Amino acid sequence: MPPSDVILVCLKSVLNHDVLPGLLRPLIHKGVTVVLIQNGIGLEEDLQAVFPGLSLEAELKLVCRGLLGHAHC
Q1: Is residue 1 part of a domain?
Q2: HSE on the CB side for 6, CA within 13 Å?
């Protein structure tokens, strides 16, 4: 796989400690930016501890869904 400039992480944050470092390790190179689109607070610090000097951005997404009435979404 050719090197990527940006890696998007859209993974359930409970997998960050066990799964994420192993997934990222072969993809990380000098100049890559990792963007976290996950639920949770403090995820950036955990990832920086594993990959010091990594260019990292975090995004917060809020998705709300409600039922307006019978058969309406």
Answers
A1: no
A2: 7
pLDDT tens, 38-56?
877 778 888 899 999 999 9
- Strand ranges of the sheet holding 6-9, from the earlier edge strand across to the other edge: 6-9, 33-37, 55-59
Coil, helix or strand for 13?
helix
The answer as to whether 46 is a domain residue is yes
Under a CB-based contact definition with an 8 Å cutoff, are residues 16 and 44 in contact? no
Q: What is the tally of structural domains in the chain?
A: 1
Residue 70 is assigned to a structural domain of this protein? no
Rounded Cα distance, 18 and 16, in Å: 6
Residue 66 lies in a domain: no
What range does the domain containing 19 cover? 6-59
In the predicted structure, residue 17 carries a pLDDT above the cut 70:
yes
DSSP one-letter code for 15: G
Assigned token pair, 14: 């409970």
